[in-house]
């Protein structure tokens, strides 16, 4: 039994930390991260202001990402996941394989839309997002004005597209809540969905 969930987020929304914690709590769980599919800097377009356009799908090898997800779906047991079960896992979930796909541009890419069981989207208000971004070191480093000129506008554009798509079922999560609260909610939601699948 396969179960795929997608964790999407504004930059520095906490998706990677949440995904790693869930992996330790769920049976036969693996993670694929969109960050692993960025093109090298030389292949990323630059706009008229000199900003590297990283927050768009063209900055990523999305075909390779989809291939990785499909390869996992074909053979989840050989994907290198740790098969030792978390102690609190119910017996009826022993034969379930879970894939968490985490990234910042997942839900408006058509080839991925048919693969999900659950979608989560972590949101942050502008000031908190900018504050968290400023504490991170990026390679290449953010140029002056990059957050306001590219990162935040692209996030708003993307989020608006999602909200306007009535057929898109997304669970929006408040990224200002504690990791413990977010983890508890998502874990309970996944277990509920898994039990439905097993019925």
TrEMBL record:
Q: Which SUPFAM superfamilies match?
A: P-loop containing nucleoside triphosphate hydrolases
Q: Please give the superkingdom of this protein's source.
A: Eukaryota
Q: Does the keyword Metal-binding apply?
A: yes
Q: Name one GO biological process term.
A: NAD+ metabolic process
Q: In which pathway does it act?
A: Cofactor biosynthesis; NAD(+) biosynthesis
Q: Which InterPro entries match?
A: P-loop_NTPase (IPR027417)
Q: Which key words tag this protein in UniProt? A: ATP-binding, Kinase, Magnesium, Metal-binding, Nucleotide-binding, Pyridine nucleotide biosynthesis, Transferase
Catalytic activity, reaction form: beta-nicotinamide D-riboside + ATP = beta-nicotinamide D-ribonucleotide + ADP + H(+); beta-D-ribosylnicotinate + ATP = nicotinate beta-D-ribonucleotide + ADP + H(+)
* Entry GO terms, CC: cytosol
Which CDD domains is this protein grouped with? NRK1
PANTHER family from the UniProt entry: URIDINE KINASE (PTHR10285)
**Family per record:** Belongs to the uridine kinase family. NRK subfamily.
**What is the protein's given name?**
NRK1 kinase
Organism listed in the record: Callaeas wilsoni (North Island kokako)
